[in-house]
Amino acid sequence: MLEYSDTELLKLFRNEDSKSYAFNLLVRQYQKILYWHIRKIVINHEDTNDILQETFLKIWFGLEKFRADSKLYTWMYRIATNEALSFLKQKRRKYLLPIVDVEKSMMNSLESDAFFEGDEMQKIFQLAILKLPQKQRLVFNMKYFDEMKYEDMSKILNTSVGALKASYHHAVKKIKLFLESD
User: Whole-model pTM above 0.90?
Assistant: First the structure.
């Protein structure tokens, strides 16, 4: 599939005749990467699909006002991140669960997930990541799996680069400790 630049997509979207076409291109271009970003946050496949749909709805309605102060990619990542975190917060409130129980539920979901295609070592690695505090887990996933630059993460998470580097460092240390003790 041919990839379009942010500028090309926005230009097509702002033209009334090609608005739907442009949005379809945008969805095809970013759907997979946003899916996996959300999936690493909420773990469950069905929840991820629901959140992804909500994310693209927010993108559709917000794209008209997008000023291009940041990259389109980071703007969409921020929406996806906020939607996923809001989902987890609602889940905790709905079931009156402390964060520990939500994480335990996510671990159980990972262990029984028919869509998980990893071997036993990958599952242990994912469980180690799930043990991290939410912010460290987010930063670790974005840096390790998505190979995102700290500057882009800073815009998405609204946090300083130094704090992100510290979070990543702490996350790596905790994961190593978990893997060594397992």
Answer: no
Q: What DSSP line would sit under 13-78, residue for residue?
A: HHSGGGHHHHHHHHHHHHHHHHHHHHHHHH--HHHHHHHHHHHHHHHHHHGGG---SS-HHHHHHH
Domains (range + CATH), the chain: 1-117 (1.10.1740.10), 119-182 (1.10.10.10)
pLDDT tens digit string along 94-134? 665 555 555 556 666 655 565 656 667 777 888 889 889 98
Instruction: Provide the residue count of the chain.
Output: 182
The residue with tokens 């690493």 is: 40
Structure tokens belonging to residue 54? 């909500």
Q: What's the token pair of residue 87?
A: 């989902």
